[in-house]
Specification:
Number of helices: 2
Order of helices and strands: EHEHEEEEEEEE
Distance between the termini: 43 Å
Structural class: alpha+beta
Helix content: 10-25%
CATH topology: Jelly Rolls
């Protein structure tokens, strides 16, 4: 049976987002990043949590660091994940459950282009991450490279959901000046319904920090460009 063709579509979405009415500051240290608080409406946020919980209830593999839900990238060093789309990563509007199709919205891409002075090509890869409690800091890495058939990883987004807020949970996203820095220059707290976006570069060192009594839940989104980020 032949594999279905891969499609890439940017879709207009139904969630109640008015990007043009929102203003966000872009911080430049240790590299370009911004945070969007209260990113989705309360109802849309709850829908995202329900979808993630339904996936988690399918069962967890007991692995040392996290839980893998997809067999589409065997051997990957990335965080384990659950794909937002069915097998073969079809990017068709009807196969991406609202409000998760927000990551494919032209308006969001237009806003990110303006904020970070980039030119996204509307290719997007998104997946859930679920890091178990009492796990060490993740691998410090840059996400700065080109993927065949998609382009350069230009912007990385992390949408926090279904977390126990508070410093006792740990699991913040650490932004580092250098690969070998023992401590991050900036810690992004796990505030539910917050969307962190940062621009990749040779200096965009980042990692999730140690988790404590609670798991760390997020949706990671990769936005691509046909050009290497400047």
């Amino acid at each position: 049976m032949p594999r279905p063709r891969k499609h890439t579509h940017t879709v207009e979405l139904k969630p109640s987002l008015d990007f043009e009415q929102k203003k966000f500051d872009v911080f430049e240290s240790p590299f370009s990043y911004a945070t969007f608080d209260n990113f989705l409406s309360p109802d849309e946020y709850q829908k995202c949590c329900l979808i993630m919980n339904e996936r988690l209830e399918r069962g967890l593999y007991q692995t040392p660091q996290a839980v893998r839900f997809s067999n589409s990238r065997k051997g990957s060093l990335e965080e384990t994940h659950i794909d937002l789309v069915p097998p073969y990563r079809l990017r068709l509007p009807g196969e991406i459950w609202p409000p998760l199709n927000v990551w494919f919205d032209k308006r969001l891409h237009h806003l990110l282009n303006k904020m970070f002075h980039v030119e996204l090509n509307h290719r997007v890869k998104a997946f859930f991450t679920h890091i178990l409690p009492f796990q060490p800091k993740g691998l410090v890495h840059r996400d700065f490279f080109e993927e065949e058939g998609k382009g350069w990883r230009c912007l990385i987004g992390v949408y926090y959901l279904n977390n126990k807020n508070g410093l006792e949970s740990g699991g913040q996203t650490g932004l580092f000046h250098d690969l070998n820095d023992p401590l991050p220059a900036v810690k992004i707290e796990l505030i539910n319904n917050r969307f962190l976006v940062f621009k990749t570069s040779p200096l965009s060192w980042h990692a999730h920090l140690e988790t404590f009594a609670h798991p760390r839940n997020a949706i990671v989104v990769r936005f691509y460009s046909d050009h290497a980020p400047a």
